[in-house]
Amino acid sequence: MKFHIQTWGCQMNDHDGEKLSGLLSAEGFEAVDSVEDAELVLLNTCSIREKAVHKVYSELGRLREEKQRRPLMVGVTGCLAQQEQAALFKRAPHIDFVLGTMALKQLPRLVAEAQAGKARVMDAGEYPDNHLFPPSVTRRRDTAKALVTITEGCNHACTYCIVPTTRGAERHRPYEDVLAEVRGLVARGYREVELLGQNVNSYAGGCTFADLLERVSEVEGLEWIRFTTSHPMNFTKDLARVLVTNPKVAPFLHLPLQSGSDRVLKRMLREYTVAEYLERLGYLGEGRSRMALSTDFIVGFPGETDEDFEATMRVLDEVAFDSSFSFIYSPRPGTPSLRLKDDLPLAVKSARLTRLQQRQSELTRASNERFLGREIPVRIETHGPNEQGWWLARSGEWKTIHLAAGPGRELPFGELVRARVTLASPHFLGAELV
Ligand code: 5AD
Ligand code: SF4
Asked: How far is the CA of 298 from the centre of ligand 1 (A)?
């Protein structure tokens, strides 16, 4: 059977897609690049905001038509599957099976049952070993950086967030297991890993997250370690120390702030004030100037006043984030913030978002300009130049690099090369091979 997996959402979901792909490949199924060529389509969904959910339903609509023309099996996995469970069959009766985020290994069984003619097959149970996934099965996409699960789930309770529902409570993978997977990856040629969890900072698989970073960094041949994502309240001094002193830990930190107003943070149940957030960034000391900082913002949270929003703009400037992701608040089913009055006109929310993003774009340009003329290590992330003749690469600070290598020059995929930065735009750095 030929299958195609379409994934939306975060790196955690990306990596689940790699695991699901491996499970099907182990059954002798063949991965294909397009829906048209597939006999089984798996929608690996995200439900973080309404827009993400819309995308899934519109794809499901397209698949219903496709299914009228030819035999096709449709499965839904990921966060929307976990959230909606059997309700998905009502909304889209052409779905053959629904697989929750904590039951990944049940995929072959569900496919077999659907193949045997059973209707509305579902498993949205919580399997305690979901995070203990055999690395030999995972079928990774062709990327220079390998994704590695260290924890699943989240024990925080931010009032806007669907993730505690869709990913459950925290489960941690023992550090020996993580180390074994990283060693295996390096043996297969990977030089960079990204440690994944809804909240990696709270890692408790036999050591702290700071210790885990140190241990992983001792794997010979590994060059860069990244991690995603972090909660400010679990960001410790130890972790900050490792981040600024360990040369293998990439100089990049994504630390979601969400709002610059204490009143809003309180209603979000973020568990910190702006002062506490800044104090934690302060743990980085002078090492911070060598790093890139990134964050997330939600604008238009219920009850956000002009004053609250101005406070966010002030913190944005004060920290001068190198990059940020910002979103208009999206009410999610079953979350506590649904009970808050959300009466701000969309036009006001949009105007705030635009202002924030424009300011961020200036800050990002300034951050990029700091790199002009510098010689930096970058990892080649494509197998050849694009139509404009650029090779795409990434710096340790997670900057996108458009690299000019000279005509006919072959650059080794996944390797670190030295580059001199010659151009800074808000979205990328242009560089020449040294
Ligand atoms: N509405 C808007 N943005 C949200 N995020 C999470 N939940 C919501 C929501 N209900 C944003 C947060 C988070 C990022 C991954 O998505 O900023 O850090
Ligand atoms: Fe989307 Fe959050 Fe689920 Fe990731 S964990 S797929 S961002 S809802």
From this structure: 6
Tokens of 135: 């690395």
Q: Please tell me the predicted confidence (pLDDT) of residue 307.
A: 98
SS3 state at 22: helix
Asked whether the beta carbons of 161 and 269 are under 8 A apart, the reply is no
| N residues, the chain | 434
**Averaged pLDDT, groups of 10, the chain, 434 residues long:** 97 98 98 97 98 98 97 98 98 97 98 97 97 96 96 97 96 98 97 97 97 98 97 96 98 98 98 98 96 98 98 98 98 96 97 98 97 97 93 98 91 96 95 96
Q: Which ligand is nearest to the CA of 47?
A: 2
Q: For the whole model, what pTM was predicted?
A: 0.97
Ligand nearest to the CA of 335: 1
In this structure, the residues whose C-beta lies within 6 A of any atom of ligand 2 are 9-10, 12-13, 46-48, 78-79, 162-163, 166-167
Ligand 2 pocket test: pick from 48, 99, 160 the residue with the most ligand atoms within 8 Å of its Cβ: 48
pLDDT for the residue numbered 407? 83
**372-377: long-range contacts, CB 8 A cutoff, minimum separation 24:** 372/421, 372/422, 372/423, 372/424, 373/420, 373/421, 373/422, 374/420, 374/421, 375/418, 375/419, 375/420, 375/421, 375/434, 376/418, 376/419, 376/421, 376/431, 377/416, 377/417, 377/418, 377/419
Q: Could you say which DSSP state residue 390 is in?
A: P
Q: Is 407 exposed, middle or buried (0-12, 13-18, 19+ CB in 10 A)?
A: exposed
Beta strands in 219-328 (DSSP E): 224-228, 252-254, 292-299, 323-328
Backbone φ and ψ for 51, nearest 5 degrees, come out as -60, -40
Helix (H) or strand (E) holding 147: strand 145-149
Token pair, residue 384, equals 């050849």
Per-residue CA distances from 102 to 16, 42, 227 (Å): 10, 16, 21
